[in-house]
Fold these 2 entries.
Entry 1:
Amino acid sequence: MNIQKWIIVIFCTWHMFAIGVYCISWNLEKSAIQIINVAATTIHVCPSIENIESDSINAIQSLAVRAKICASEEGFIGDPYYWLHEELYPIVQPYVLYTSQWQMWNLFSPNPLRRVSTLSFEVQEGDTWKEFDRLGARHVKWWRRTYMLKILRRSIVNDRYEPLRKNFLQHHCKVNGVQDGSVIRMKWLYYVIPMDGNLTSPKWWHEWEPHWYDFVLYSDTCSNPEL
Amino acid sequence: MRRIVNFINAFFFSPISARAFGIVRVNWAALVFLFMLLQWKDVIFLYSDAGMFTNAMGDDVVFRGSYRFSLFDYLTTPKEVFALYLVLLTTTFFMLLGIWTRFFTIASVLILFSFHERNLLMLGGYDTVLRTIGYILIFTPNISCFSITRARKQWDHWKESFTLLPTPQMSIWPYRLILWQVIILYFTAGWDKTLGSMWWEGTASASAFHHTHFTRFSIHIMDILGMGSWIFSYGTVLWQLAFILLLIPATLWNRMTRGHYPYLHLKRTLFIIGFIFHVLIWVLLVVGPFSPIMITLYIGTFIQADFDAMRSWFNTKWQGSIAVNFDKASSKQCRYVFLLNLLDWLGRLEYIGVQSEPTVRITLPDGKTASGFGAFKILCRNLPFLWILFPIHLIPVRSKD
């Protein structure tokens, strides 16, 4: 074994280690969160977290907050999860991120995505709002569908994406030739597929009617000086 | 100590066929080229400061906060962004063809990383797989199989000896990295599913089949498929978790199963299920290029024994060989037979160079002979790469009588 071979051995071992720690620590974190929450609700180890409400949209974030409070109250520091996440993860993180090897395999999990979203772009005409464009599963060309719907799903879940919403709305008003100075808005329409044991039954789907919610995400004035 | 060093040497540097990684390179480049080409009209919108995401929005909105590099930190205007986009299309095209293979592979991978780092919001699991494969390809010792450069060498060799060059070899370590990636990918994906409730209830697949962002067919077809949700859901989780078994050393596994179910069979079973799984996903759900990219990742786990097993499976009912008679003095016939030789992945052809053969003539194992279009039709059936031309079988062959 020459020096070149030893370098390759070290590189491979390091790469495998880094990828493994990076992925597994995410799963361990989620598992720890779930275990702590189950423990909290079944054997009441952390009575204080029962006051933290869990809303249906941000269930995972709520659970994480509850688990972290509980872990600090009960002194869970020192378990394998913390060792992996607090000690090893920071060591591998720079390598994994700089080489763009970051990964988290939560495809259709822990539960498949259940919220079905559409964006409606509207312009004000007198007292009414008229839709001039729509972004949803049936409204984008097949070759744009995957990435445009991914942007849609991600940009609506967090308010820190508000600057994106503004640009998104302005972009749609431009490509649709909306008059400069018109009042425009972006409305989020969605329904949620319920968690129901009957989802496997065609009869159930036939009888089920989605309950639509709508929410104005952003309002602005169309800036379209070319028109 | 010597035993440990020998083990390490064998574990990382045993020679394997470089064919698999040649195919991975071609597939990777073709997929990146194709799917980036589809973004042509959206490039400015997705990646430049004139689009949805401006650099000024910074770390909290568009980018990851730390440990990142992207050429788009420096190239921000629409013209610059589109220029880099054209460079990526060019480099992937040359990588696909295999011209200056190493250089264009490194360039393509690094530019693709820049695109991904510029817009995290639109990335999916398939983009992650592309990055993991690309990164390993940069370092893989031999990625020149199925390249124009190698085709030229093959032709020179063929002209002299009427045989192809031996299959190129490389060290096994890139295969180990790919296999590790596959194990991590599936095992953590399966693990994550066990943390949800719908996979346990068997309703996860039915829910996914009815999400209009993903469904490809009408709701009625999805209703029927949803009835099998229990099988799909449990089957998926079990199959994904089973990948952890591949960490058991092959010798230990073979000893445990007493040779009745060798390690190679375990690996092939998991990957064949995976192939069917991803083809089904491709057919049923709209999830972008996820399936072809996963199958590309699979090919990186092929060793010569897998190629041989696949060839044996295709040749189960095949006996003998097709003799291809050609005129050694005719450069036109030589080129044609050379191409046939390159495409003969099932090893069904035998090449017989003769004098004064007016046209390439084939003799089948049963003694029948054919030439011209009739011969080409027969060859199409036996050369997998030409199976795509199956409609030509509808064209009748004109009899000379």
Entry 2:
Amino acid sequence: MTFSTELEAKFARLLASYPPGRQRSAMIPMLMFAQDELGCVSAELVNEVARRIGVTPVQVEEVLTYYSMLHRKPLGKAHVQVCTNISCLLTGGAELWEQACSRLGIGHKEVLPDGSISLEEVECIGACSWAPAIQVNYQFHHFVTPEKLDRLLASLRNENPHAV
Amino acid sequence: MLYNEPSPLEIKVLTRRFGLPNSAHIDTYLATDGYKALRKALEMTPKDIIEEVKVSNLRGRGGAGFPVGMKWSFVPRDSPKPKYIVVNADESEPGTCKDRLLMEFDPHQLIEGMLIGALAVDAHAGYIYIRGEYRYLIDILDKAIAEAYERGYLGRNILGTGFHFDAYTHTGAGAYECGEESALLESLEGKRGVPRIRPPFPAVVGAFQCPTILNNVESFCAVPPIIRDGGKAFADLGVPKAGGTKLTCLSGHINKPGVYELPLGFPVDKMIQEVGGGIRGGKKLKAFIPGGSSCPVLTAAECEGLTMDYDAMAARKTMLGSGGVVIMDQDTDMVKAALRIMRFYAHESCGWCIPCREGTAWLRKILQRFSDGLGVRGDINLIGELAKNMLGRTFCPLGDAAALPTISIVEKFRDEFEAYLTRQPPPSRAEEPLRVIA
Amino acid sequence: MADPVKLTIDGRQIQAPPGTLVIDAAKRAGIEIPAFCYYEGLSLQAACRMCLVEVEKAPKLMASCTLPVAEGMVVRTETPQVAQARKATLEFLLTNHPLDCPVCDKGGECELQDMVFRYGAGESRFTEVKHHVEEKQWSPVVFYDAPRCILCFRCVRICTEGMGVGALGIVNRGVLSEIAPNHGDHLECDECGMCIDICPVGALTSGAYRYKTRPWEMEHAGTICTHCSNGCKVTLGVRNHEIVRGNNRDHSGINGEFLCIKGRYAFDFFGHPERLQSPLMRIDGKLQEVPWSRALAAVAAKFQEVKGRGGKFGVIGSTRTTNEENYYLQKLARQGLGTNHIDHHRSGDLVTLIDALSGRPNASLATTADLYNAKAVLVVAADLASEQPFLSFQVRANYRHHQARIYVVTEKAVREDAYAAAVVRGGVDGVESLRERLAREPELAILFGASVKGEELRKLVEFGSSLSIPVKYVCLLDYSNSRGAIDMGLMPELLPGCRPSEQPGMTIPEMLACADLDVLWVIGANPLARGQLASANAFAVVQEMFLTETALAAQVVLPASSAYEKTGTVTNVTGEVQRLASPLRKMGTKPDLEIIGLIAKEMGLAPLMGPWDAGKVFDQIRQTAPGYNLPLPAIASGGAAQTAALNGRVAAPSRPELIQSAANGLFESGTLGRYSKILHSVLEGRGRT
Ligand SMILES: Cc1cc2nc3c(=O)[nH]c(=O)nc-3n(C[C@H](O)[C@H](O)[C@H](O)COP(=O)(O)O)c2cc1C
Ligand code: SF4
Ligand code: FES
């Protein structure tokens, strides 16, 4: 498998970050960074990562299926993650989640048909004091209100004009 | 830009650079006493460093509150194995969002804390394990690490002393359980985030089977001020058995939610009213979570005369935890709160041991049904009993973390559960499918 | 050794070495602490929480499977609190577990069922919808039913740690966790079935056995696997005169919990439709069924006639018949027929090894126990995992449990590489490069394959002695009684017990090439699969289970019983003598011992031969074959008795050129393997027929 030169450089740095013989340590970062570039963790990527760090593919599968941020299927270009955990729940997170679902017509871990936006109801994302919070890909949005959410979804659609 | 206005009641030790222009840059850090503590520590013996941390009465800020100096003293210095520093930056305890700020606004303070820890135990490499959702912090920390290498604070021959130390960032990928120290180490080694059998503890057998000191971000960040200004000064800020300040994350139904650095022993009432500006909408306090969702919930009455410190919380059968204070007002639906908390633990249970894996899943189902108006009288006792059947019997503390708040909620707010039973049930609703992770 | 630790368990004073786990200390004192995930010899999990016990001064219940004993510790294993905790854990476990014991394949021998019976969590308070997942088939022989899985991870550990394969993993998390195979939806592995045997519940089931019967409807016969030389004990589950299951019921054999695919599943040649069930005689050029009496009479008459005129006999014995049969055969050949033309398919140069070891006080033959205990093991020219599965397991267990150093000198990559202290790719000369390291070892066990023979083998033994440490050897052999064939004198140059014959007869190639051979008598062998019979007029008598190439060329074919239908003993590759015991008999067949006896009787040689009773023949062996004067009770009770080491020159010419290993892999086993559907189905599944 070939990756971008930046990703290859990241891989090289990662593999050098751990003590000799401990290259397996690079597995999770490699999967995360590769997923960011490729959109998901494909079977091919599983094999490639297994080969590079010297483990069996099933050892990668074990890890891949454990972590909630790693996924086998591509998500939307904008992955909208709405926190509904306790602090967000108390400040309207659950309502934001319902709102996002009904506006987009999709549910948990679903993607708009054109692949522009996907939704996920997530656990606490570490923004409790600025709740309710949403993350779009890796970007945080704090003190989200229903209006802000609508604007946010609209802008994500504008960036992706084919979205419904 | 800070996320919330500071409070005049704060005592800013760890957060004193927050708000400075370019606060994350090494020049800002150096201009404000940065790496001074390291220079001092380089002149000290490891024993003296550990002694100073002991004097400071610094207790672990990740949740368990174990004395940091004591933990460091468990590392077998004469072991021929390499030793490691691991920073727990997994911050996933619901209600907690403080480590994020320490890394975003003052990354060098963390690096300096790691360096001093390394001197104390003779470690030469350290890893910052950052939860996957905090991707932006990896960029910030990597940049800070690069600056430190450039200025000779990291790498070979640090400040010409011959000491060497390498620091690395390492990303998680979405798993609360990886905040548990031994699960974190497994994850760091490229495995499922399943905890290890303990003992041995990480101080003896940690990262890569080598002695390791593993502490929370805030714990490491407290070390430079302790060494710089002396352990005693830090200790004096707090209460007799717990020194210093604690970053406290106020969230929920409060007027001025935010992260505030308050001395240990700060009165809860003052914290809510003066720091947090009181309950939203002038309402009354119903329930109070002192340190993240794993702690037993307190009623308003139980908060009276309470102060924010480890022993005071223990006396009320709860915990100071991670400093994630969640305020719930009089209108809060405690059944829904209990359900949401259990949904979290069911989602995050690693699945290793039976009581936690099956217990959280079962409780989640009962609470879901109950909150949907389909509860029956026996459910209320059953919820409490099942939670107690998990308590103290699981492989790691996550089982307790799920059981404790649940027990406290059904016991202290039983009337709300009773009230649910008399409500009109909503139109029937399909069983919510279990979430498949990945 | 450090002083033992004193502690109290259930009011009893107990002593245990430091580091002993409470669960083991209790077990040794006869106190059983229940557990699902704890399994002696595998890594610790502390996952099932069934083994929780009360420890005085501890704030909560402690997992006894990870708790080392401590001086003065006071443990209580059955208090109301403990019982309540176990019952609660079982209640949790049953929430998503199907409650259909009556139809579950494991019903009757399920550890979960037993545990619920003991602690009572029979009535469930769980009224929610169970999490359901469909059952999956992972290979021809392995099925997985996730809802029944209690996630004790025994299967994952036995595969990864015990077998060194690592074909199983754990996927997903929380209540959705399940076991997964290494190739997405299917397994590619040794298919040993260890995961099935070790599964405490009905989650992993055997494609060969599932839903065929109930455990209590079978007779269980502990016997010895007939497929390779390692001599694993296997328990055959027999119902209605058919074998329905092979497994490792009581772990009482030398193999402990181990069995490979052949031992576990490849018993199915027994019921193969092509099994011979009637004697055949060549009449009008065609093999036709005849009664036993006619066939035996014809054979005896021919033998008598040839013997009378001083004609030439060639006798080829088997590597999978019993010691008694082999002994009886050579006795009839040598003393009854008066011929020394007797041989068998040789798969290892044991004779040279014994000779080379003579007079070396620091060198001897290794036992299977030695392979588990030796501080260092050297593997030369052998692919253990493929050809010697149990020995491979044993060496790996030694590495896992005792951190033994394993050294490998082989041409190709082998499984041992993964944990070897040093690997040399190449021929036997490669041992030289390990000299320094090996000489620093306190002791060494060397296993070597068939290609190390003759002079090369003498050189290896010389090398071993030059290390100046105690060295033990295993000469690897192919079949279940290859060792017994040598020891019983199925060789023209050797009498039973490796005593030289005064008039060495013909070897197999010589018999086949002999133009004026009068009789070729073949028992459980197939020499014509590879060779041609030169003598056009030879009268061939073949005792076989199937119409092999050799049987097809015979004048008379006598249907033989398999090892799973016999009593008697076999000797494994490391010289351990074990008993075959079976309640079975395929209709129409006879054990070879009986066939030989009947031929002798027809020839009027019964007085010479003595009765064809396995016990009586073994008495003769004990008296005549040095090394075989063994304690009978050990064997009779289903155990193994080690043959005494021969120490002395073997004054016979060694014939290394005759040695050829079949190098049977995991899914092959000579003629028997050809008639095992299970082995075929696994190979077909991989497109490797
Ligand atoms: C389920 C669970 C989750 C945890 N999550 C975190 C976390 O996110 N961050 C953290 O610092 N400690 C967390 N901890 C506590 C750690 O196990 C450990 O005690 C701590 O990192 C030690 O550092 P300290 O002594 O500086 O607090 C968690 C513990 C448990 C049982
Ligand atoms: S190792 Fe050999 S003797 Fe043992 S079960 Fe397998 S085939 Fe049979
Ligand atoms: S509860 Fe939503 S970010 Fe913490």
